[in-house]
Amino acid sequence: MARRNSVEQLPTAVRDWLDKALMDGNFSGYQLLEGALRDKGFAISKSAIHRYGQKIERRFAAIKASTEAARLLTEGAADDQDARSEAVIALVQTEMFESIVSLQEANEEDTKPEDRIALLSKAAKNIATLARASVNQKRFRLDEQARIEREARTKLLAEQEEKLEALRGADGMSEQMESRIRRILLGKE
């Protein structure tokens, strides 16, 4: 079994201080850290501090990378407008268009007519599939947007109705007048 690094045998408070000092110093200045530890009563070589620092730096880099990946996934997951799908469809459509242009510009001698027809047929089929996907994606986006707007409107009307109910009778206005104003404000008249 391997011997534990002498830094890992330090008391927790001292090791926490060293971790912070390593990060604050951008994982450099090992001689200064060796001197600071000596002043605190610990004899640890700069080589041992360096080995420990590299291990902490790798761990810190892995945590940072994981955090960044999680942030990107979180941002990507919140895609109510389905912008990623729209971007992928646009990218594929562009690639298909460029392929068709390249095929048209290709030398007649390079490609047999039947091969060109087969390729164009496949391209047309794929373009039709992409067009359907694009239409469905746009329909989904519009439906989702309409749903969100309906929910917001319903919530706003409910809040307005609560506020109006709280004010009912507070100003000496007749019930009929209040009811009429309420219907007008809530869009029921």
Describe the structure.
By secondary structure, the chain is mainly α. It has two domains: 6-76; 79-184. It contains six helices and no strands. The chain has helices at residues 12-24, 30-39, 46-77, 83-105, 113-167, 175-185. 5% of the residues are buried. It holds the Pfam family Phage_Mu_Gp27. It comes from Chromobacterium sphagni. This is Terminase. InterPro entries: Phage_Mu_Gp27 (IPR021874).
Please render the helix and strand layout as text.
Elements: H1 12-24, H2 30-39, H3 46-77, H4 83-105, H5 113-167, H6 175-185
Protein name: Terminase
InterPro entries: Phage_Mu_Gp27 (IPR021874)
User: What is the total tally of β strands?
Assistant: 0
Order of helices and strands: HHHHHH
Give the count of structural domains.
2
Look at the structure and give the mean pLDDT. 77
Helix content: over 70%
Shape: flat
Radius of gyration: 34 Å
Number of helices: 6
- What's the N-to-C terminus distance? 83 Å
Strand content: under 5%
Low-confidence stretches: none
Describe the largest sheet: none
State the secondary-structure class: mainly alpha
InterPro entries: Phage_Mu_Gp27
Protein name: Terminase
Pfam family, one: Phage_Mu_Gp27
Outline of this structure?
The protein is mostly helical and 189 residues long. The chain has helices at residues 12-24, 30-39, 46-77, 83-105, 113-167, 175-185. InterPro entries: Phage_Mu_Gp27.
